[in-house]
Write a structure and sequence with these properties.
The strands form three sheets. Strands 7-6-8-9-11-10-15 form a seven-stranded mixed β-sheet, with helices on both faces. It is built from 29 helices and 17 strands. α25 links the parallel β13 and β14. The longest helix has 19 residues. It folds into three domains: about 290 residues, 3-Layer(aba) Sandwich (Rossmann fold), CATH 3.40.50.970; about 150 residues, Thiamin diphosphate (ThDP)-binding fold, Pyr/PP domains (Rossmann fold), CATH 3.40.50.970; about 130 residues, Rossmann fold (3-Layer(aba) Sandwich). Helices cover about 40% and strands about 15% of the residues. The chain starts with 9 loop residues before the first helix and ends in a 5-residue tail after the last helix. The chain binds thiamine diphosphate.
């Protein structure tokens, strides 16, 4: 029987003999490779933390002790060791399978849910402070990747640690990679810690090191007393000492014995300790080691070759690529256009831009707030920055959007990819709130294209506009609409009528425009004539055309790939009310709840009443109900 199949809980991990652990690690790796090859997922980060997670579960005891994993994309090993090595793991990231991240709702061993970067240290510090206040005794561990330290929040928490608690274990899981290569001064500093011989002494065997110092034996034995005098054996000083945190490192993240030693030590320390642990992204799977960026989060692939399914011949471009290529075109014409990413060059399509125009490209790390402020600063100096940030991650930078860009009326164009669902990732990654959180900001332009050609036109529109502008577009392939050689600006606030119908007018935006056209065709089979309007802008909304719609039809249907509260439907309702126009509005959008992960957008739409059939039913019923009421029109 495989060792892994004997692990029902962390107690079983503790029960294994040390010599069995490499075999367990090997089985875990095989399981992760096999599963992610079918389902896709965060293979590289997980293969890197196999030994580290085993060691964590041998030294600490969840759920009493509490682990906070940053982003929590590297939590697969933890799942396997905490009673989730079952059919749900087989279907990780799929409908009825486990989440690809940690979630409090999924297991009592998941002390904290995540999906966005940089949250682990703050959350762990909150837990440690709560423990101290309550007077309980559990241990708290924050596991942060090296790129998590490019996040502002991690640095804010770091500043707060020593003042808040004496007992916190911080793991710096250093694999040198964000999704792309990590950027900035801190990663360089971490590298300095590894390569500088002064710091490097820790690489000597831990026990023999302690044996050489007075009291070292008792430290090993009881692991209880952190002796100040031992400090200099580990490092002469590090930036972490300035923060009141004891730094120990670098530690080999694949040496179980060493890991257990240091974790035990940190567990018993009476001062916050940071363990600098070196891991290899993709460890144990050569293809992933060779391609750390692609195998950070991979689509399904062939285990032998590492290759994914080829894109079907003539497949439309991905929206992200249409964006990247258009930006290259527009920035070649205007050297003041710069592209900014917060650690997502490939995901946003800016990698094409980086390649073509490296001087106009900036990767600021996982630092969305900073990215937006940085853009604002450049915009005050004659540049027109394009911030390419996923819709969900831009939530981070809300104050910067209001206080730094909108209030100061600066020309920054935001290209928000992944607006709509990220089906396999789930609630932390769906971009369902942007229309709502932007629509209330004074003076901004908010638009969504129906296809890739309109995306390019909207980019030209945003760059021609001397103020803040936002474009949202979905994950995945565009429609295959031919793209004009030169994108043309659109009149701001002008909707586009696609077809006329006297009974119902469907106002749709973004990816829902294509659905609206199909809905209109189905409605006509029911004898209902529906017009279709591509709203294009939720702000400013085309109020004039909306008024005409309301006066000439019985029902307005709004369709948006966005949460139902606060988006296009709400904007339409508010505009009609403000103009004193009575017209029923049927709003189609995602319900007011967090949408979990699932195998596909189609399945999640079905589960949430948004399949084409459900929408047709709703609209037909609403229309028929209206016909039976005394509506004079
Ligand atoms: C706020 C936010 N921005 C961007 C991302 C996308 N993202 C997911 S993991 C990751 C890199 C994390 O690198 P690191 O912390 O070093 O962990 P590793 O993957 O190397 O284990 C990024 C940029 C995110 N999850 N959250």
């Amino acid at each position: 029987m495989p060792l892994l199949d004997r692990i029902q809980s962390p107690d079983d991990v503790k029960g294994l003999a040390a010599e069995d652990l490499p075999k367990l690690a090997e089985e875990i790796r095989a399981r992760i490779i096999a599963t992610t090859s079918r389902n896709g997922g965060h293979i590289g980060p997980n293969l890197g933390v196999v030994e580290l997670t085993i060691a964590l579960h041998r030294i600490f005891s969840t759920p009493t002790d509490r682990f906070c994993f940053d982003v929590a994309h590297q939590g697969y090993v933890h799942k396997l060791l905490t009673g989730r090595n079952d059919a749900r793991f087989e279907k990780i990231r799929q409908s009825d399978g486990l989440s690809g991240f940690l979630a409090r709702s999924e297991s009592e061993h998941d002390a904290y849910g995540a999906g966005h970067a940089g949250t682990a240290l703050s959350a762990a510090l909150g837990m440690a402070s709560a423990r101290d206040l309550r007077g309980s005794d559990e241990h708290v561990v924050a596991l942060c990747g090296d790129a998590a330290f490019t996040c502002g929040i991690t640095m804010e928490a770091l500043n707060n640690v020593a003042g808040a608690t004496k007992r916190l274990v911080i793991i710096l899981n250093d694999n040198k990679w964000s999704i792309a290569k990590n950027v900035g001064a801190l990663p360089r500093y971490f590298n300095e810690l590894i390569t500088n011989p002064v710091y490097n002494r820790i690489n000597d065997d831990f026990e023999s090191l302690l044996e050489k110092i007075p009291g070292g034996q008792s430290i090993i034995k009881f692991g209880s007393k952190w002796k100040r005098e031992t400090k200099d054996f580990f490092v002469s000083s590090s930036i972490f000492e300035t923060y009141g945190i004891r730094y120990i490192g670098p530690i080999d993240g694949h040496d179980l014995k060493q890991l257990e030693h240091y974790l035990e030590f940190a567990k018993n320390a009476e001062q916050p300790v940071l363990l600098h642990i070196l891991t290899e992204k993709g460890r144990g799977y050569d293809v992933a080691i060779q391609n750390p960026e692609r195998f950070h989060g991979a689509s399904p692939f062939d285990v032998e070759t590492g290759k994914g399914a080829p894109a079907p011949e003539g497949a439309p471009p991905k929206y992200q690529d249409a964006m990247g290529q258009t930006l290259v075109k527009l920035a070649r014409e205007d050297a003041n256009v710069v592209g900014i990413t917060a650690a997502m060059p490939a995901g946003t399509g800016l990698n094409a831009f980086e390649k073509a125009l490296p001087d106009q490209f900036f990767d600021v790390g996982i630092a969305e707030e900073h990215a937006v402020l940085f853009a604002a600063g450049m915009a005050t100096s004659g540049y027109h920055p394009v911030c390419a940030i996923y819709s969900t991650f831009l939530q981070r930078a809300y104050d910067q959007i209001i206080h730094d860009v909108a209030l100061q009326n600066l020309p920054v164009l935001f290209c928000m990819d992944r607006a709509g669902l990220s089906p396999n990732d789930g609630a932390t990654h769906h971009g369902l709130f942007d229309l709502a959180y932007l629509r209330c900001v004074p003076g901004v332009v908010v638009m969504a294209p129906a296809d890739e050609d309109e995306l390019a036109d909207m980019m030209a529109t945003g760059l021609a506009h001397n103020g803040p502008a936002f474009i949202r577009y979905p994950r995945g392939n565009a429609l295959g609409t031919p793209m004009k050689a030169a994108p043309q600006p659109i009149k701001i606030g002008q909707a586009k009528r696609l077809q006329v119908g006297n009974d119902i007018d469907i106002w749709a935006i973004g990816s829902m425009v294509a659905d609206a056209e199909k809905l209109a065709a189905r409605l006509s089979e029911h004898g209902i004539e529906a017009g279709v309007v591509n709203a294009r802008f939720v702000k400013p909304l085309d109020v004039e055309r909306l008024g005409e719609s309301a006066k000439s039809t019985r029902l307005i249907v709004t369709m948006e790939d966005h949460v139902i509260t606060g988006g296009l439907g709400t904007a339409v309702g508010e505009a009609l009310q403000a103009a004193d126009i009575q017209c029923p509005v049927e709003r189609i959008g995602w319900p007011d709840t967090f949408i979990e992960h699932g195998s596909s957008v189609t399945i999640l739409r079905e589960e949430n009443g948004l399949s084409p059939e459900s929408i047709l039913d709703r609209v037909v019923h609403r229309y028929e109900r209206l016909l039976t009421t005394a509506d004079p029109r």
